[in-house]
Amino acid sequence: MTAAQPLLGPVVALVAWTLLMWLWMYATRIPAIRAARIRLDPNAPRGEQMSTLPARVRWKADNYNHLMEQPTIFYAIVLALVVLGDSSPLSLAMAWACVALRVVHSLVQALLNVIEVRFALFVLSTLPLFVLTWQAGRVVWGLT
């Protein structure tokens, strides 16, 4: 194991969480589609049929989509830090903070969907990305 490999832990954790959200999404979506007797139509406008499902069902899919958006930056910067050989406690703490905040964001969105709380968690989960980017930039541009 190299010194920077502990940073891969948060990457694997967020991927695992994303896959759990995928399972949760389909565990609620498929029964809801059946209950509503929706006939899936490939010619229907994108999202039209799913918009008829109950909000509590849609929230899981919305969150899964969110896990395909900003976390891509997380994956890129953490993998860059691994390649750069960063093994600092600060980077590791920020990576885990980002993962923890994304998990809490998912739970809030999937269960309650209070937009103000979600937004606060989104902002908080972005702050570690700034620190991680700073850490990588210091190495890349020789600012250490």
- Give the averaged pLDDT, no decimals: 95
Radius of gyration: 18 Å
- In CATH, the homologous superfamily goes by the name Membrane associated eicosanoid/glutathione metabolism-like domain
Helix content: over 70%
Regions with little confidence, pLDDT below 50 for 5+ residues: none
N-to-C series of helices and strands:
HHHHH
CATH topology: Four Helix Bundle (Hemerythrin (Met), subunit A)
Report the end-to-end length measured between terminal Cα atoms. Answer: 24 Å
Characterize the main sheet. Answer: none
Which range does the strand content fall in?
under 5%
Overall number of structural domains: 1
Number of helices: 5
What is the CATH first-level class name?
Mainly Alpha
- Second CATH tier, the architecture: Up-down Bundle
Count the beta strands. Answer: 0
Report the principal-axis shape.
Answer: elongated
Question: Which structural class should the secondary elements be placed in?
Answer: mainly alpha
Question: Which properties best describe this structure?
Answer:
single chain, 144 residues, mainly alpha, Four Helix Bundle (Hemerythrin (Met), subunit A), 5 helices, 72% helix
Walk me through the structure.
- With 144 residues, the chain is an all-alpha fold.
- It has one domain (5-140): Up-down Bundle (Four Helix Bundle (Hemerythrin (Met), subunit A)), CATH 1.20.120.
- The protein has helices at 8-36, 55-66, 71-84, 89-111, 115-140.
- The two termini are 24 Å apart.
- The relative contact order is 0.16.
